Amino acid sequence: MRIIYLLFIFLLITQQSVSQTVNDISYFLGSELNGSARFNSMAGAFGALGGELSAISINPASSSVFLHSETGGTLTYNNNYVEGRYAGNSVGKEDSTLKFDQIGAVFVFNNNDPESVWSRVSAGINSHRISKFDQNARVLGSNTTGIDAYFLYFADGLAFENLPLYDDETIPEVYRILGEDKGFAAQQAFLGYQAYLINPFNFEDGETRYTSNVEYNVVKHELDILTKGLHRKTALNFSGLYKEKLHLGVNLNIHKLEFHSDQQFFESEQFSDSPVYNIEFKNGISSFGEGVSVQFGAILRLSNLRLGLNYDSPQYLEIYDETQQSLSSVYFDQGSIIRETVDPGILNVYDAYQLKLPSKTTFSAAYIFGKKGLISLDYSTQNAANTVLSRTEGSGYLDDLTASLPNTYGSIETIKIGAEYRLKDISLRAGLLNRNNTQKRISSSDQAITFGLGLDFGSNSLSLSFVQFDQSKAFQMFSEGLNDLYTLSNKITQVSLSYNIKL
After folding, report:
1. 198 occurs within a structural domain
2. Which residues lie below 8 Å from residue 5, measured CB to CB, with a gap of 6+?
3. What is the per-residue pLDDT across 353-408, written as a single tens digit (0 to 9) for each?
C-alpha cells in the first residue's frame, strides 16, 4: 500500500501501490474557509458566537443561539493561482470555479414553561465543503535523476520472465494479470521494460537485477497536475439552552469524499548520447470515500462575554481508489527514431481501506458590544501525527506508514480572529486566520485575510464576503527513485454570496 497524490488533498492508497507521499494527508484535514458569507468574512471565528448556519459545523451549541428558525445557502466564486516551485524554478497557473458551497437550516423551539431549566431547544442541518480539491498546477525544472530510477526501484528483485510479451499475449492482458498476481510494483516494472527504459542484466529467466537504458547527466522535468473533487461534511445537529446561560449541543456528521487527478510527467534531454531522450508518464487517479464523526460543544454566556468549547471526534472514513496509467518513450535504435507507447487501458480498482483522521479541540471567546458589534477569537489544536490507516484484514505496510507519520506531521494550531460592526441594518465584518503548516519539512503557514458586509431586511438577509487565502505544501515528485520535493503555493481568492430567510 502506498499513498497517492491528492490534491490531497486528497491521500490515496492502493493495495500495493506507490505513487506519492504522506505529505498528501494534509488535504484531508481541511484548509480553506468554506461556509456562509458571514462566516467567511469573520475568518470562521464563531466558536463562541453561534447564531450562524455555518457555525453549527464548528460548535454544535450554535443552533440554540438562534432566536428564530432560519434557512439559507451560499454561492461561491473561487479563483486559485498556483505557483509550482521545483529545482529553483517556478511557474504559475490559474483556475476558477463557481459552485454552491453551503446550505443549511435550523428549527428553534421555545419552551414557555417557567419551571423548565431548558428555555430553548433547536435542531438543524448544515452541509458545506470542508475542502475543495480543484487545482491546475505545473512544475518545471532540471534534475540529475530521471524517471528511470522510479521503474528500476520497482523492478529490483522481480524475476525477468514476468516482463516480456510471449506468443499471443497483449499488453492489457499481462498488465492486468501482473496486478492481480504480483501487485502494483510488478505493473510498474512491466511498463518500464516495455517502454525500453530498463533492461535486465541478463535476458534469462530468474534474473532479478536491472539496468537503465537512460544515459544523461542532466534532464528536464515537467509535471502537469489537474485535480477535481471535494470533501463535504453534513452536520445533523441538536442543541439546547440551559438556564439561559449555557448552550449545549451535539452533531452527527456525515462525510463524503470524491477526488480525481490527472498527472502528466514529461522528461526530456536532447543534447546527449542517451538511447532514450523523451519520456511521458501519465497517471489518472480517483478516490471515493464516506465516513462519520461526532462533535460536542458548549457556549457559556457571561453578560457580554461568551466562552466556547467544542470537541471534534476522530473522523472515520472508508476509502477505495482507482488508477489508470500509461508510459511512452522516444529512443534511438540502430539509427532509427522509435516512439514506444505502452497503454494498458486498464482501470485498477483497489480494496477499501480505513482512514482515521485525528480529533480536534477548539477554545473560543467573544465579546458583544451591545448592538454595536462584537469581536471573537477561536483557537484550535489537532495532532496530525495521530492519523491512522488500516484495513480490516490487516496490512503491514499501512501499520508502517502510520508509524512513520510523526516524522512528517506535527500538531496543527489555528488562530481565528473576527469582528463585526453594525450600522443599523448594515454590518461591516473582517477577520484574520493563521495556521501553522502541518508538514515538518516546510516552515510556511497558511494565512487568510477576510472582510465583508451584511444587509438585514428583517425577515431575510444578504451577506457578501471576500477571502484572500495563502497556503503552501510540499510533495515528492514520486515516492521512490525520483523523490525530490516540489512545492505548490496557492493564492486563493474567494467571493461568497449568502441569502438567509427567517422562517
Report:
1. no
2. 12, 19, 20, 24, 225, 261, 263, 285, 475
3. 888 889 999 999 999 998 899 999 999 999 888 888 887 776 666 777 777 777 77
Q: pLDDT tens digits, residue range 336-349?
A: 888 999 999 988 88
Find cell 438567509 and name the residue: 500
Does residue 297 register a pLDDT over 50? yes
As a whole number of Å, the end-to-end CA separation of the chain is 51
**Confidence band of 464 (pLDDT split at 50, 70, 90):** very high
Contacts of 224 (CB under 8 A, 6+ apart): 137, 138, 263, 264, 266
What pLDDT was estimated at residue 268? 92
Q: For residues 1 and 395, is the Cβ–Cβ distance under 8 A?
A: yes
Q: Is 153 within a domain? A: no
Say if strands 360-369 and 305-312 run parallel, antiparallel, or are unpaired.
Answer: antiparallel
**Inter-residue contact 245 to 305 (CB < 8 Å):** no
Q: Which domain holds residue 483?
A: 2-146+214-502
Residue 48 CA: distances (Å) to CA of 109, 377, 441: 21, 8, 34
pLDDT in tens, 97-114: 999 889 999 999 998 888
**pTM for the full predicted model:** 0.86
DSSP single-letter state for residue 359? P
In whole angstroms, what is the distance from residue 132 CA to residue 156 CA? 38
Q: What are phi and psi of 489, to 5 degrees?
A: -110, 120
3-state secondary structure 298-326: EEEEECCEEEEEEEECCEEEEEEEEEEEE
pLDDT grade for 9, boundaries at 50, 70 and 90: very low
**How large is the average pLDDT for residues 318-328?**
91
Query: What nine digits make up the cell of 373?
Result: 458589534
Whether 430 and 450 have beta carbons less than 8 Å apart is answered as yes
Residue type, 6: L
CATH of the domain at 463: 2.40.160.60
Residue 125: Cβ within 10 Å count: 18
Q: What is the pLDDT of residue 98?
A: 92
Domain assignment of residue 346, yes or no: yes
Question: How many helices (H) and strands (E) in the chain?
Answer: 5, 24
Please indicate, yes or no, if residue 91 is contained in any of the structural domains: yes
Q: Is the pLDDT higher at 253 or at 5?
A: 253
Pinpoint the alpha helices (H) of 168-249.
Answer: 171-181, 184-194
Q: Which residues of 229-265 are buried (b: 16+ CB within 10 A; e: fewer)?
A: bbbbbbbbbbbbbbeeebbbbbbebebbbbbbbebbb
* Residue reference for cell 479541540: 361
Number of structural domains, the chain?
Answer: 1
